[in-house]
Amino acid sequence: MKDNFKLPSTSLIFLVLAIFSLINLLVLPGQKAGILVFIICIITLLKNINDIIQGFINGQVGMDILAILAISSCLIIDDKLAAIVVVCMLFTGDIIEEYAEGKSKKSLENLVANFPTKVTVDGKKVDLSDVVIGDEVTIMAGEIIPIDMTLSSDSATIDTSSLTGESIPVTLICGESISSGTLNVGATFSGKVTKIASESAYQEILNITNSALETKAPMVKLADKYAGVFTIISLTIAGFAWAISGDFMRAAEVLVLATPCPLIIGVPVAFISGMANLSRNHIIAKNGAAIEKFSRIDAIFFDKTGTITTGNLVVTGFDSADTLQIAASLEQKSGHIFAHSILEKAASENLDLLDVDDVDEIMGMGLSGVYDGKHIRVGKESFVCVGCAHTKNNAFKIDDTIIKKHKNDLSPRVYVSVENKIIGAITFADNISQNAIDAISDFKENGITDLNIISGDKKEVVKHVAETVGIDSYYGELLPIEKVQVLQKHHSDDDCNCLMVGDGVNDAPVLASAFIGAAVLAKQNSAASLSADLILVGESIGQLFTGYQIAKNTRKIAFQSIMIGMSLSIVCMLIATTGIIPAVVGAIIQECIDVIAITNALRALKTVK
After folding, report:
1. What's the pTM?
2. Which residue(s) pair with 413 in the sheet?
3. Per-residue pLDDT tens for 258-298?
4. CA triplet 387, 390, 393: central angle to 5 degrees?
């Protein structure tokens, strides 16, 4: 319990005090309540003065000056109620920002926490930090490989999708390299450590992701862009009122109307409404800045597997019913990635499964068994046709041209043999999502034509997918760091705001480095969703274009709210220079302006057509 305890933030503490002061002032409007309000307001002023100094150091002028003017003016004309309300709004905004930042940091912490911290060396579990180069480690079936190594066992079957995006497990032989972060989907194997844990491939991904998140330029708030101008205008009008009347109270009455409530409330309400609208369309925006950035993209980079393709292998062809029937009969005993697809296809073809005896699976190679006294196999070519030449003296049809027929086919496939004689092959494909095709077409029709695919898969496969969906620019066989480099070069050469869309651990660095990242929510939580600004729920990018329209509409409405609030405030300030608007009336007018700005901002909730 102690480890889970967290002290409340300073902003939360002061918000609670401000709310307590506000209630005190409303219930017991006496001197003691007024003193508490005054103390809270002074503390807030000091905090904002510090923020102003930091802003000037960083070359930014935000709403802090307006907040100081608003609170100070209210105190000068002894309107403590208005002052404490502004204080409550300011600290509420701070808490929302702190929460968003905290979620981002916690995401990376969770990613690290889910990675193995121990590995088996000489039959004992030891800390990764204690493993040295040359140690012989053992990786059990189903374990994540926690450190880079070379394979000592004869073979191993590895799921590399977390690093390369490739959905098909690869079989490695003795002496080949294995990267950390991949998954052992075969039998237990052993390997020799080639890098210490802190320098491994998976740690490099974490370092790149963390570095990108920390160095990413902070988003300048939309309201802050106009706060400086509004501040100058407000001070000018207040100074003019003081000059023509010779009474500072006149200037204070003007500044009451200059409270930044339309900027403090109107803009956040618009973006919160936009976030709710995105959520209804199965997109989670982590903060308002994500929506603002999403609305300004002019180039998109897509990962391939699980983003443009479904990430699920399906049977696209088989040479005969016998081929599919034998394969399915063997695969019903397997948990391999091909098994489900083959069984599903056999069921759709209404094929009865055979009662196979002595089924044996060799991880990374295939399955063998006995049916009706004959040895049958499914798997790699080298596994299914061991020891005999092709003949036609068996109960199943044999086609000696099968291997030659599939020689130039890039599709994944398995072969089926009877008595070491190949009778057919089954081919697979990772189907392209129709929703992805539609989304890409929508972006093109609406002016975003700078579309690219970056993938860890083979260049020939990436080229085929790009041509199918109508994308001209594509990159294949990329490591995670190379994806970042491609994106950064594109941004540098074309000076564009790039959206990156991906779904795996291998996409985490580039998602964090991009102007804005969108993660397709995978079947299991990945680094992609943790480092992205947007999360697409439902494992499809079909809703991406709708989200883009919502983001653009939200930004437009937020801008309108700023213009409405500022324009009405300026008009009222000009009228207040004549002295015909008392401070109390000015406060009421300002509240009406707030309501108008907020009502307009709520339009971001409406569905974009």
Report:
1. 0.65
2. 427
3. 766 666 667 777 887 888 788 778 787 877 788 889 999 99
4. 110
